[in-house]
Input
Amino acid sequence: MKYSHILWDWNGTLLNDVGCAVASVNDILVQNGLPATDFDTYVQTMEYPLDVYYRKLMGDYDYRAVMEQFQQGYAAHFNSVQLSEGARETLEAFQAAGARQFIVSAFEQTRLLQYVKRFSIAQYFEQISGANDILVGSKSDRARKILGDAAPNDAVFIGDTVSDYQTAQEIGCDCILYSGGHQHRSSLTGLGCPVAETMKQIAALCME
Output
């Protein structure tokens, strides 16, 4: 096993929730009298921090109010969401190899725990770290605390966005990005880290 510490992003990485997010964004747009988006446009235009993305869509707006609307829509559309293909098998393989696994997510902590438990995978993680609120802030401080005294070169952050790459850079660990999430592959290539199309590829990169 190449890494002793695996830090996982949740939304768009372990969880295949992009369709749910698109539906939730469309709820917000329709409620505000704006044209809906579609899956391809969403992944090609999604940008972090999220307030930048919503400003492109909506102009001036109340960020907290929009985040509350998003959470309501997300909960309403969540029944169609599944784990990413191969995610459970990859978690099992890493556990069998002795790696310590963690979730570091921008999703609010209480809801994050509910969703993780819903898929019966909580047992794979030593810690599940979500945000204190719904405003989708930085994950770097929480990731750094999770690593503690572990050497950064023994850790990898696995995510699906440029923001996840930036988190890895800030804490000094490797990064692997998954192209099946919230940002199109074209946004991820060229950052200087591997971009995997499948969980099987992610497992191979971590266990080589």
